[in-house]
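Quick one, T. Sequence first:
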Amino acid sequence: MKNQLIIILIAIIFMSSFVLLHVGKLEIFAQKEIQNKSTANSSSKIFKDVQGSVVQITRENKEAPTGPPGDKNVTSLGSGFVFDKEGRIITNHHVVDDSKNVDVTFIDGNRYVASVLGSDPFNDVAVIKIKQNISGLRPLPLGNSSAVEVGDQVIAIGNPYGLAGSMSLGIVSQKGRLISTEGSQFSIPSVIQTDALINPGNSGGPLLNINEEVIGMNTAGVLSDSGGFSGIGLAVPSNTISKIVPTLISKGNYTHPWLGISASTLTSKLTENFQNLSRDFKGVYVDLITKDGPSDNAGLRGSTIDQYGDKHGNDIITAVDNHNVTYMEDLVSYIDENKRPGDKLNLTVFRDHSYSDISVVLGDRSNSTKSEERKEPYG
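Structure tokens:
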């Protein structure tokens, strides 16, 4: 009898644990469902609030001189978002290209003609202005992209493949990326990476946080080997936009500092170009120097090739203005964010197993014809 009671008690304890475990799982599931529903509701509200401030931009391509007659008057599509109540709209440089006027279509179908006020091909930013007077425009506020964290929820809105007013959700996958731009040998620094779907036609559209602030402008999506979306979307950070746009409005262009080198992040493989250099040495490997450019005039040295075709390294940049640099992104971002043409830049260089400081007077990138840095693997 005593043994039977013990067995019954054990069974009761087991069943109670089983029930509690499943109740706990149901509570967790319910909480996740509530969170998912809350996220969906929040995203839906954001879209309804901002959709009237996102536009489709259409430009007419020039007929290619060697192309077939059917290519005449082919149009290109992109996106943009309202910057102010005066009718200024922000988009990508590659969306407007060298056009003087483009068409702007709002989500309600209203279409207007806009003139291109200014464009910066190096950071892929452009400002256009609607020629007609329009009331009721709702500008989208620019947020602080420096405050963005990996894992933050983001929303991309644009017109992929001409499908007006499309929204995709994602997170910030990483920040501080360095990407090459279409038609330019230079790179955009501090770019935001996201897994939100970015397709052709999304270019120029806003990347928003949950506070309905623009923290980036969708610029490119990296394609997979099969030609589909790879899960890597790229956006110009809002702080870059905030810095460049006022100058584009007032002057029509933006000047960037120019160092005059082709370089890349030092890798274990590149350390083999030096004698007795540790494979874990960190810095930026200087490969090529632009003749008569800022770095050449300052005495910086690039790599050389001997009579046997072997490459030998000379200079490794380890710090800029006493700030350590490990990646090429560190160097480019620091210069772009803190310097202007004509400013002095102090480089700490490792050469012949010793360190030295070299002062460079930065040039104007628009006057250069050579690449300042090696292209990164993002298109």
